[in-house]
Amino acid sequence: MIRSMTGFGEAERQTEAGTLRVEIRTVNHRHLSVNFRTPASLAKWEPQMRDWLRAHLSRGHANVAVRLEPAAGTSAAAVGLKLDEERVQAYLALFGELRTRFGVGGEPDLAQLLRFSDVIVRDDEGVRIEVPADDLRAVVEDAARSTSSMREDEGRRLQADLEGRIAAIDVALDAIAELAPARLAAERDRLRAVIAELAGGVAVSEDRLAQEVAYLAERWDINEELVRFRSHNELFRELMAANPEEPVGKRLSFLVQEMHREANTIGSKANHAGIAHRVVAIKEEVERLREQVENVE
Q: Which of 10, 158, 206, 216 is most exposed, with minimal Cβ within 10 Å?
């Protein structure tokens, strides 16, 4: 079973420092790329968190948001917040100037001051909250397992779509295999008629005609391409049914490239409208495979 690289997971845990929450959102990427958004007090753990995630996610771009809601009674300084006293004094002085210079009545209150976003500011140097490593690891891994579970669910839906497209390609290949022999017989009859017309009643050399047909048969032979294409399809199915812990997205992507190459070769040797139409249908399915495989882990 395959896994998608699109997923979401979250987890939370009560710690001595407060409620620790982790959210993980993943999308497709060639490798494992992790972007963290963490409180300043937890930034030092980012290398370890990346290692913990790697045990559950092998590919994809992951946005990881870590939030800590301090326990009740925790001081503002402990969570990295402080009052910008100089700015508050400046605002109050300006209010007083408005009152005296322009005759504006009233007194400034707390609600008015808090409308200014720079009254309360970050003070990371004052942060003193510590989260035990075991608690942090537990919640990160819980969120990663939740993300992985969603990626597996998405993978099942993705696999069903891919299997349907491989089946459609198989049907088209079978139709091409049935049509291929008839085009040689039709070309032989066409050549005989053309030669007879040009020869003006002179008997056509069957040996010479057979040589020409044999030459065309060699040029138009697509049996090897059909065999390789079916082999690619079979391997594609085997990879989708493999252990989900083993990433197969890159190998599937390579197989899709090979499928596209075989389809082009068959199309160049077609010389038959029915075969050409089915080659177009195969290319459409291969292109959809390529788009879907980009999201396989």
A: 206
Q: Is residue 164 a contact partner of residue 75, using CB atoms and an 8 Å limit?
A: no
Query: What does the radius of gyration of the chain's CA atoms come to, in whole angstroms?
Result: 35
113: its two tokens:
């001051």
* Residue indicated by tokens 């040689």: 184
Q: Which residues contact 74 (CB under 8 A, 6 or more apart)?
A: 17, 18, 129
pTM: 0.70
Tell me which residues of the chain have a pLDDT lower than 50.
Answer: none
Phi, psi (deg, nearest 5) at residue 22? -130, 130
* CB within 8 Å of 253: residues ≥ 6 apart: 290, 293, 294, 296
Q: How far, in Å, are 1, 2, 290, 297 from residue 159 at the CA level?
A: 7, 7, 13, 12
The domain segmentation of the chain, as residue ranges, is 7-74+129-149, 81-122, 153-293
Q: Are 58 and 247 in contact (CB under 8 A)?
A: yes
Report the topology of domain 7-74+129-149. Answer: Ribosomal Protein S5; domain 2 (3.30.230)
pLDDT at 125: 58
